[in-house]
Design goal:
By secondary structure, this protein is mainly alpha-helical. The chain is built from eight helices and no strands. Helices cover 77% and strands 0% of the residues. 22% of the residues are buried.
Amino acid sequence: MYHPFSITQTLNIAWHIFKKNVAIISVYTIIAILIFGLAGFVAKYVIIDELFDYIILAFMIFIISFTFLGFIKLIFQLIDKEYYDFDFKDILPKIKMLFSYITLLIIVSTVAVFIRHAIKHMEEGILQNIFGTISYLVVEIFFLFYFPICACFIVDENSGPFEAAIQSYNLIKGNFLKYFILFIIIEAMVFIGSLLIIGIIFVVPFVNIILAVTYRKLIYSHLDVDDDVTETV
């Protein structure tokens, strides 16, 4: 049966998946935190030569991207595991996924840096402030609003960077208001969770589960097919 996109149902499904797989998700989160901590320690205290700054940055981007995409793959596997079993290798991101994700990340970041640099060199005044505010909002909206859905397309459909951006825009535009409301809810959860370290450990993975379920729900809302993921609650 066809199911339209529903905020309440999306949150319920995400909570069901989180609660049902809390052990697996917690272990992955703890391992990810340890990897980030170790990578940060190596970058700060082991490799101290300034000539290696770009290598360190590239290394950190790779580690973060690999871990994040791996978690998205894990979520999709947990959603679908009632239909088939999966192994550890099934949550490892493919090379193309990493390339697409990092390429999109670098392109958007580079464009943002150039725009902000150009605005800084404008004559000081109200026009500079307006352009600065607009550029900041556009970049933040893309990274926080569209980028997570781009990541889902990259993982779930092995999309390229530009393809994922176009797919994300087309997917969200039909349910923009609902997705925006869900986005506000997610931001509120992240803010509350950030008040306590233990909160982040649970909130960050739960937020990513919400985004993955949102992606799947939006996909189904565009298709006149049976929405199996809604039957998990």
